[in-house]
Amino acid sequence: MNSLLIYLVEVSICLGISLVIYRVLLSGLTFFSWNRSILLSLLILSGLIPLLELDFFGLAPEVTEMTLPVFLVGDDVNQDQTSTFSWTMVIVWGYLIGAAFTAARLILGFIISQRQIGKAQKIYHNKHFIAIHPDFVPASFFEYILMPDFNPESSEQKQIILHESMHVRLRHSWDLLLVNFAKVLFWFNPLIYSFERSLREIHEYQADQGVTYSFAPREYATLLLKLITAKPGWQFMNNFNQFQTKKRIIMMGKSKSSPMQRLRFLTLIPVIGLLLFVFSCEKEEMEPDMARLDDFPETLVIPFENPVNTFQSPDQVFDIVEVQPNPQGGMEGWNTYLASNLSYPLEAREKGIEGTVIVVFEIHQDGSIHNVEILRGIGGGADEEAIRVVQSSPNWIPGKQRGREVITRMRLPIRFQLEKFGESKSTLTVNSLKDKNYDPSGLLQELAVIGYVPSID
């Protein structure tokens, strides 16, 4: 569920940045086909970029240390399902209900549109289908031109039909279909509606441009003003005079943008590159792979092409070895040790600090622990607490490579998480596990230190 929320936030950021760049640098240009393509591309990329996982020329952090198995430490967060109130679940369910409602509205609107066209009179005129019904306003809907009546000799209707035929020819309804699918996913985000308005604006500019090639701009502008209507159209419809009449008239009289102004489109290259780097570059250091120790084989055969390289220095540090290090008492002993010694620092609780601390340390040939460092910290005393617990832990059984004890590097992620309960639980720490039905023998999915703060009524 958290991944869904993170994805929605990242897409919203991409949409916002893309829309600002378009509005500031590109919306005033007369390269309407380019602007349409750019808007559609930015919409698609905003949805795809957060899903990508890229390695930019090896710049992504490469963490090769073995990650210890992780487990839950703390008072059972789910001990009373009726007393735990998860805002995350409320938000997710609210989002899903909104998406379902928007999708149902989209499908229902399409069905109603098809039925209304089915009731209309249809004729084939100048390579286009025209659906005629008194309830229609001049518009286009996929391959149909919608008209309330039809008079092929009327100059006004010739301009209207030419305008709508441009929408049909350029397949503008398919653009709106894509935007409406995006609205199902991002119905809560006002930016998606701004994207739709910008795209509809470009559609009208393109259609107006097609009409002014055959009719005088002044005559056509007078027609636009004459037929102003506030009647809403269908979801995939391009109304003849839906909105932005003043901007359309101004754009018709505007001089064509010079070819050199196409260079503005190059600004999108660093913007897209930045978005890719921020949202698609691998973040292993920030979100460690929670591998289990028993995922590694007991014996790992490492071939050596050059026999000279088989010499092992006593001080050489290994990331992966044939025989993995093991804590005293196995993982059961390790789980018990951490559960009994980790606590949520008071400073971190008071300041509301939570997050994941990643500790890196070495296990030497005698099993002792050295070089304990923080790969990623969160402050508030949590880093020092993680280092203290690891430094104070009993000696391990060292790892072996080619039958000899060697120095092995390990990595331990510890997640500090705050939960709000009643006042009586405000000082609980992991030591309270001793009084719970806690079974440390299993390899659980995450090491988390749960701190409790008073709930705010």
The biggest beta sheet, please?
A: 8 strands, mixed
From the helix content, strand content and strand pairing, which structural class follows? alpha/beta
Mean pLDDT: 79
Shape: elongated
Separation, N- and C-terminal Cα atoms: 26 Å
Portion in strands: 15-25%
* SSE pattern: HHEEHEEEEHHHHEHHEEHHEEHEEEE
Count of individual beta strands: 15
Low-confidence stretches: 59-64, 69-84, 284-311, 422-445
The radius of gyration computed from the alpha-carbon positions, rounded to a whole number of angstroms, is 32 Å
The number of helical elements comes to 12
The portion of residues assigned to helices is 40-55%
Kindly describe this structure.
- With 457 residues, the protein is an alpha/beta fold.
- The chain has a domain at 293-454.
- Helix content is 41%, strand content 16%.
- The chain is built from twelve helices and 15 strands.
- It has helices spanning 2-26, 32-48, 87-119, 155-169, 172-185, 190-212, 217-226, 245-252, 268-280, 330-341, 346-351, 382-391, and strands at 66-67, 72-73, 121-125, 128-132, 139-141, 144-147, 237-239, 317-318, 326-327, 355-363, 369-376, 396-397, 399-401, 404-421, 448-454.
- The strands form three sheets. Strands 1, 2, 8, 10, 11, 13, 14 and 15 form an eight-stranded mixed sheet that branches. Strands 3-4-6-5-7 form a five-stranded mixed sheet.
- Strand 3 and strand 4 form a beta hairpin.
- Helix 3 (87-119) runs antiparallel to helix 5 and helix 5 runs antiparallel to helix 6 (190-212).
- The longest helix has 33 residues, at 87-119.
